[in-house]
């Protein structure tokens, strides 16, 4: 719960930036009780092995800059999961999400032993598509009326990364840890 105030502040500050890409926020979304519920839900997913959420913090001052999740993990014949992420408006386009992906992808394949990662984004979210393609994700198709985002059913572009594909870290896109201020 110690991250509540900084999380809520960043989300509120970034509301206009995030709402075009996210489901409609409930009225109580930024309350302490909603944050507590969110953390409990994250703990349940982690315990069940169906999701692994992470907050992203800036190294220089430990300030929260966003979040990234491996969720909807399916075992058995699929061995796959879905990547989702968000960045606070002041931190977008500054490399934090690229770095977060460079850490989460090896975790998904090496520790969780997943075979496939998927990500879906609205086709006109050029920044997100560019981020995923830079990480090695490949476009697979259009999911019509896939998710209800900001109150409307929206088409999404499906991108995927297979464990055997060349990954971001293998291609030298990210080398070492990057310090940012």
UniProtKB/TrEMBL annotation:
Write down the InterPro entries for this protein, in alphabetical order: Acyl_CoA_acyltransferase, GNAT_dom, N-acetyltransferase
* N-acetyltransferase domain: residues covered: 1-159
One GO cellular component term: cytoplasm
Q: Does the keyword Acyltransferase apply?
A: yes
Q: Could you tell me which PROSITE patterns the record lists for this protein?
A: GNAT (PS51186)
* UniProt keywords, alphabetically: Acyltransferase, Transferase
| Top-level taxon | Bacteria
One Gene Ontology term of the molecular function aspect: protein-N-terminal-alanine acetyltransferase activity
Protein family per UniProt: Belongs to the acetyltransferase family. RimJ subfamily.
Q: Which PANTHER family match?
A: [RIBOSOMAL PROTEIN US5]-ALANINE N-ACETYLTRANSFERASE (PTHR43792:SF8), GNAT FAMILY, PUTATIVE (AFU_ORTHOLOGUE AFUA_3G00765)-RELATED-RELATED (PTHR43792)
Q: Tell me what this protein is called.
A: GCN5-related N-acetyltransferase
Q: Which organism is it from?
A: Brucella abortus (strain S19)
